[in-house]
Every structure is written in C-alpha cells, then in structure tokens.
C-alpha cells in the first residue's frame, strides 16, 4: 500500500513538472513569435532602405553626368548640399575621376 502511495506521489510530481514545462514552452513560443515578427519588420525596412540607397546612388550618378556635360570646370571638386539632410549642413562631395 505504501508503495502505491509513493508511486502516486511520484507520478503527481512528474505531472506537475510536465505542466510547468508545457507552460514554459508556450511562453518561449510566444516570445519566439514576437522576435520573428520583429525580424520580419526589420528585414522589410532594410529592403526599403537598400532600395532607397540604390536609387540615391543612381540619382547622384545622373547629377554628376549632367554636371560633367554642363560645367566647364568639373575637374574641380564640386560640393552639393544634400536635400532633406538628417544633420544640418550635411554635404556630399563629388569629384570627377
């Protein structure tokens, strides 16, 4: 009889431990889901940033080409003010290669 009581006690402990592990796994899955969502948002923002950077690079090349055609002294360094600069007075320096 005592062995049956001990077996029941041990099974109860195992069951409690499994329930605790199940709760911890649910919490971990929720946190993992939140991290995955954040990573997805960051990747999307990175794609947008890369696309804008590519477009800005193309725009700068076009500006340099136009200036090379229209400016007689393009061999000198030409300084342009960046539109919508994040920092006041931010500038871009373009030199003819």
Task: Explain what the structure shows.
The protein has 97 residues and is mostly helical. The chain is 71% helix and 8% strand. It has a two-stranded antiparallel ribbon. The chain contains 1 helix and 2 strands, in the order H-E-E. The chain has one domain (2-71).
Give structural attributes.
mainly alpha; 2 strands; two-stranded antiparallel sheet; 97 residues; 1 helix
Q: Helical element count? A: 1
Shape: rod-shaped
Average pLDDT works out at 81
Task: Please summarize the sheet with the most strands.
Answer: 2 strands, antiparallel
Helix content: over 70%
Largest beta sheet: strand ordering: 1-2
Rg estimate, integer Å: 32 Å
Weakly predicted, low-confidence segments: none
Number of domains: 1
Distance between the termini: 94 Å
Tell me the series of helices and strands, N- to C-terminal.
HEE
Q: Structural class, please? A: mainly alpha
- How much β-strand is present in the residues? 5-15%
Q: How many DSSP-defined strands? A: 2
Brief overview:
This protein is mainly alpha-helical. It has one helix and two strands. The protein has one domain.
